[in-house]
Amino acid sequence: MDVLEIARWQFGITTVYHFLMVPLTLGLGVLVAVMHTLWVRTGKPEWLRMTRFWGRIYLINFALGVATGLVQEFQFGLAWSEYSKFVGDVFGSLLAMEALLAFFLESTFLGLWIFGWNRLPKKLHLASLWAAVVGSWISAYFIIAANSWMQHPVGVVLTEDGRPRQVDFLAVLTNNTALAAYSHTIVAALMVAGSLLVGIGLWHLRKRKLAGQPTTDVDHVVWRRSVRLGGWVTLAAFLLVALTGDFQGKLMYEQQPLKMSSAEALCETEAPAPFSIFAFGKLGSNECDDVHSFTVPGLLSFLAHNDFSTAVPGVNELQEKYAAVYGATYPDDPSFGDKAGQPIDYTPVLAVTYWGFRLMVGMGAVSAAVAAYALWSTRGGRVPTWRIGVYGSLLAVGAPFVANAAGWIFTEMGRQPFVVVPNPDVPVGEQVYFFTAQAVSPGISAAEVLTSLITLGVVYGVLAVIELGLITRFVRKGVAQQPSPTPGTPPEGAPESDDVLSFAY
Amino acid sequence: MDLQTIWFAAVAVLWTGFLLLEGFDLGVAALLPVLGRTRSEKHLMLRTIGPLWDGNEVWLITAAGAIFAAFPGWYATWLPALYLPFVLVLLGLIVRAVAFEWRHSRSEERWDTAWTNVITGGSLVAGLGVGAALGATTLGLPIGADGERVGGAFSGLGWPALLGAVAVAGFALVHGALFLALKSDGPVRLRARAFALRWSPVAALPLLAWAGLVQLREGTAVTAVLWVVAALAVLLTWTRIRVDREGQAFAGWALVLVASAATLFGAAYPVVIPSTVDPAFDLTVGQASVSDYTLTVMTWVAGVGLPVVLAYQAWTYWVFRKRLSAEPVHA
């Protein structure tokens, strides 16, 4: 394998891994902040217990999210230095702003929340959590704006040396691609958090019922509330995920038509275009015509253009069109490495885009179905004892994680062979674009990247096992283990107690 | 002053801020086996930095981000040239961050001890690694005509990297000890004070040597004065520890770093990476920077954002200002 290929695997693995923590942080943070707010407003003990139980899971997960986020920032420079130079005028400033405006906010105020339980006045303490949550949401926006600029570069002009120069920062910040991707990602994050509440809550409810424990005590209320809250959040978020996804999809048909046709394995341009339900044949060959699929007539036209008859361009036609505009072969230039002079395949890996898209939608639907089951089975104070349903819900906690990962893999792989995709709204000669083959650091060796890939992979793997173990152990124990301190400002001169700090450290 | 100079200064301030703030939490972590004799003493030491380390680490992220944002040429030359050392730093920071959060997740003593050791090890690796990278950056990396590293994976790690590593680690150890002297009570406070008294003159030497070398090569009269200030601040720190004025000693030691860093960055400007291959290949601020438009946008954002960040970070330190003391271990 050459440097390019190893570096791509490294980027893919570290990014997907990081993005397992991110949606949970984004989604669960808000839910914990809502629980904490309800406790401050009502003073009811169940809200405090919920805040502390779910807050703890939030923190265990947050630590790994922060730690793996560091790698994200540095690897643009480490393995993708040509990319860093090329996009420097736009991309770096978004990352720097994220750190300055969002990440400081998140980290600092989370520290205040963790350690402020009886140092800060109640409302200020609550405000710290909200500040941290807002910080993480702003942070997500900057990152998605940076990513969206790679998908759809705006606010720049092409300079004589072939690089983008930023001319309109506001355009970069309000890129329609970013707005669409951000809203989609945020609601998807809420599905992750909602499903977690549902799965764990149902499991505890059933266990308590089978053990004959009362349905009147605080713990019962805690689990029931968690299931109901999680269920409604997941269902509402699923509706929004579908709406924002549809909006994002229509935008993609304009901005990256090849990505969308590949998602459907639509080989020839068709009017009306059918939507593929299932595909078979040799998807792996990346020859579109080896693929056959079961389809729903006209649906794809509707998804792309809101009517049932408009033509949707197929992979084969687009491939030719791109080759005519951007070249059928990579320039014979050393900056393209092994790829110099080779033909360019503008079609992303079909198997990945096609199944990635379906996994995203399918797993999202699984979460929604589980949420509906949870709400139905707990209606009017009922507690489900159906083993398959409850264990299925627990297992389905993983579904939205898979959906999120698949969605990003689809988005990122679908952008190949470009790392910065040309913006079709700009006249051809003035477009800013960059091939992935050019982006990798020229000075590093394959051995170096392979070493880092293996080391990071092993460490990430070990940490994943420990994190899962910790969360499982913690979840099994339930809420009763949580000490309930009396928050508020302690009397002057009172000694610091370890019990309070043990909430987090 | 033009925007490029302002941003060079901003990068210098961010790195100095990182070393100043994360410096003490790295130092406290590295001193755990040295100054903490019992489990509860180690616990106390960790509690002094518990609410602060995460916010401190963001200074590193912002410092690296600012280089990417303002000087992508610098970012793109620097990181690949020290590829494996940087990966090691990242690994150190990763395991350290999760260890802080995870060590209290189970009550067994072995679990606690293991993660406490991970905090110490990760912090040492991160401190030494960042120091090595900064040392190599200010004293020279083997950069060729094309801006790429000449030689193999470790060709960037010569004596400048070693000097930088020792300088940053030495600074952090004393900084951590002084922070503990200021923030804790009981035996840890006394041991920390004794440690700082004994080691501060020694630990300052590599830092002063490093700044001095850059000064000798390319310094100005102003940076020469700054270097003298740094040297005098070592003396100030030492005398303040002797009379048990912990706050003043901590401030004195902070001045050692600030003056040394100002010497380093001030003397190096406008070169961001000197080449050990040929001075003609030196990377300068002008070659590495982004457009004036982007710098202007960032100047506005930073001008509004940074004071706010400083205000709430200062407030955090105020909230957690109380001195901590060890309590008997709860079973």
Report on the architecture of this protein:
The complex is a heterodimer of chains A (505) and B (331). Helix content of chain A is 66%, strand content 5%. Chain A is mainly α and 505 residues long. In chain A, the strands form three sheets. A two-stranded antiparallel sheet of chain A has the order 1-2. A two-stranded antiparallel ribbon of chain A has the order 3-4. In chain A, strands 5-6 form a two-stranded antiparallel sheet. Chain B is mainly alpha-helical and 331 residues long. Helix content of chain B is 77%, strand content 3%. Chain B has helices spanning 3-30, 32-35, 39-49, 53-70, 72-81, 83-102, 109-139, 159-183, 187-218, 221-242, 246-268, 285-288, 292-319; strands spanning 184-185, 271-273, 283-284, 324-325. Chain B is globular and about 55 Å long. The chains are: A mainly alpha (505), B mainly alpha (331). At the A-B interface, α2, α3, α4, α16 and α17 of A face α3, α4, α5, α6 and α13 of B.
Name its key features:
heterodimer, A: 505 residues, mainly alpha, two-stranded antiparallel sheet, 66% helix, globular, disordered C terminus, B: 331 residues, two-stranded parallel ribbon, 13 helices
